[in-house]
């Protein structure tokens, strides 16, 4: 992984808070202490049922996510990457209990929450903060920023009016929206994209969650403010010992922020493990192809990336073999006939590819 504090994504000034750039990363106290994951998914699957109406063209079922198993430890960031439409957001929504899984299970701190409702669901919701791709869509244009940030406090009946105002003021300062007295009176249209996304981070953190799910939080922002948001998330992770699921299709961003990385292809995890191992070795041809699209900057990580063949439209999740086989530069007969399992090939590093399964002969 990159040296801590180095900022490979861009070196532009942060929108209004330059000192956040290059902030030293605090030592995390619990690196080996509590190992119960904050959140854990086992074989999560989501199928959207197609229409079988006589009035409309029949639409096939969409297998958005297939048997995804992953976990996020306290104080640790798991990155989720893959092309658009591969199931990252649906996975995140299931983990946040915004979507019901078709099958599989979810545990929060070791407790099964797959089908919880009522008070237990409400307790879980307090512990999960979400940051979405577009701060322009996630903030109500008619509400002052302060009201948007304090909304979770109102929903969960935390504090009285003045306590909520103090909490919002403190949170504005912490996310770099200073002076808080200025920002507390603003409406969304008065803020830049970077400032709005900081407000969205403030809202995600206001209830003191222990898991933050950030779904492509910098994709819609100017390059010049992305680094500031990443550094903010990293600082919050360290200060609050947060677990974080960070979704991005940008491998450079993942290499900066994440401890572990999972690569998804057509709804399945095809490679997962320590960020340095997955992004450095890129054992799965698809991970390597993604790196060809977004070159990693660290020369130590480079092995020649192989360009991807075709596009997603030439791919289908229903092939009986490896779903990546039609686009794979290294594929052989076994890849077309048999789906590979996700196997542990180094400690904690998993890959679903026959090339890395000693019992399979890919080319003969
Ligand atoms: N509500 C829905 N109904 C039907 N299909 C959906 C729905 N939400 C997502 N999908 C489909 O599920 C797949 C995965 O979507 P998504 O998780 O949003 O991808 P990503 O976030 O990786 O770009 C896509 O094929 C998408 O069209
Ligand atoms: Mg998405």
Walkthrough of the structure:
- Helix 4 packs across helix 5 (161-174) and helix 7 (193-205) packs parallel to helix 8.
- The chain has helices at residues 88-95, 118-126, 135-138, 145-155, 161-174, 180-183, 193-205, 223-240, 251-257, 275-281, 285-293, 333-337, and strands at residues 39-48, 62-72, 77-81, 103-108, 111-112, 128-131, 211-215, 243-247, 260-265, 268-274, 343-346, 349-351.
- Helices cover 30% and strands 19% of the residues.
- The protein has 12 helices and 12 strands.
- The longest helix has 18 residues, at 223-240.
- It has 364 residues and is an alpha/beta fold.
- It has an 8-stranded mixed β-sheet, sandwiched between helices.
- The model is unreliable at 1-33 and 296-305 (pLDDT under 50).
- Adenosine-5'-diphosphate (ADP) binds next to strand 2 and helix 1.
- Magnesium ion (MG) binds at residues 88-89, 215.
Helicity, as a percent range: 25-40%
> How large a portion of the residues is in β-strands, by DSSP E?
15-25%
Distance between the termini: 36 Å
Average the pLDDT over all residues and give the rounded result: 84
Question: Which structural class do the helices and strands define?
Answer: alpha/beta
| Total strands | 12
The distinct ligands, each listed once, are:
adenosine-5'-diphosphate, magnesium ion
Quick overview:
This protein is an alpha/beta fold and 364 residues long. 30% of the residues lie in helices and 19% in strands. An 8-stranded mixed sheet has the order 6-7-8-3-9-10-12-11, with helices on both faces.
Features:
binds adenosine-5'-diphosphate, disordered N terminus, 364 residues, alpha/beta, globular, binds magnesium ion
């Amino acid at each position: 992984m990159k040296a801590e504090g180095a900022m490979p994504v861009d070196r532009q000034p942060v929108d209004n808070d330059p000192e956040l750039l290059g902030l030293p990363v605090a030592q995390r106290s619990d690196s080996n202490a509590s190992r119960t994951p904050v959140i854990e998914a086992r074989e999560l699957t989501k199928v959207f049922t197609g229409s079988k109406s006589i009035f409309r063209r029949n639409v096939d079922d969409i297998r958005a996510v297939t048997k995804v198993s992953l976990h996020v430890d306290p104080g640790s960031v798991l990155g989720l990457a893959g092309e658009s439409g591969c199931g990252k957001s649906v996975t995140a929504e299931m983990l946040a209990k915004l979507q019901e899984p078709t099958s599989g299970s979810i545990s929060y701190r070791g407790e099964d929450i797959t089908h919880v409702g009522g008070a237990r669901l409400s307790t879980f919701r307090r512990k999960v903060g979400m940051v979405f791709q577009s701060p322009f869509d996630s903030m109500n244009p008619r509400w002052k920023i302060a009201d948007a940030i304090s909304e979770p406090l109102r929903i969960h009946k935390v504090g009285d009016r003045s306590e909520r105002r103090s909490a919002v003021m403190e949170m504005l300062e912490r996310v770099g929206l200073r002076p808080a007295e200025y920002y507390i009176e603003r409406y969304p249209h008065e803020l830049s994209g970077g400032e709005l996304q900081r407000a969205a981070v403030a809202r995600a953190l206001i209830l003191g969650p222990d898991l933050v799910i950030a779904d492509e939080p910098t994709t819609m922002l100017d390059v010049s403010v992305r680094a500031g948001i990443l550094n903010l998330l990293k600082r919050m992770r360290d200060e609050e010992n947060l677990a974080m699921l960070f979704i991005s299709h940008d491998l450079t961003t993942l290499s900066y922020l994440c401890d572990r990385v999972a690569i998804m292809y057509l709804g399945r995890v095809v490679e997962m493990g320590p960020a340095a191992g997955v992004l450095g070795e890129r054992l799965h041809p698809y991970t390597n192809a993604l790196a060809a699209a977004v070159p990693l900057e660290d020369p130590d990580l480079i092995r020649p990336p192989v360009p991807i063949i075709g596009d997603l439209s030439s791919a289908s999740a229903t092939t009986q073999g490896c779903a990546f086989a039609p686009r794979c530069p290294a594929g052989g007969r076994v890849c077309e006939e048999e789906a590979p399992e996700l196997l542990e090939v180094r400690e904690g590093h998993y890959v679903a590819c026959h090339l890395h399964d000693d019992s399979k002969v890919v080319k003969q």
